[in-house]
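Lecture 7 notes: from sequence to structure.
We start with the chain below.
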Amino acid sequence: ARFDQNLGIILLNENVVLKLDKLTFKSDEMKLIFDDTDAIDDNFSNLKKIIAKGNVLFEREKETIKSDMVSFSPKEKKIMIVILNH
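Predicted structure tokens for the same chain:
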């Protein structure tokens, strides 16, 4: 994992699992982008966006979606799922 506090970005690599409320993201790599870099707390309340890439599994309750990339904005409650043609 790498953390760039100036940019407010946490980069995670290799078998990443992130649980956020009722959502679970699993991927090869993940980028967490925050609004306020001075107030990053343990519950990620100022998390602006999650970008998960490579072998992504997005799980919500009993629903599981597999994709190549997922972009999720928690405050807007918007998710974009990208599935590339193989």
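Points to note: Strands lie at 2-4, 9-20, 23-34, 47-60, 63-73, 78-82. Residues 39 and 48 are 12 Å apart (CA to CA).
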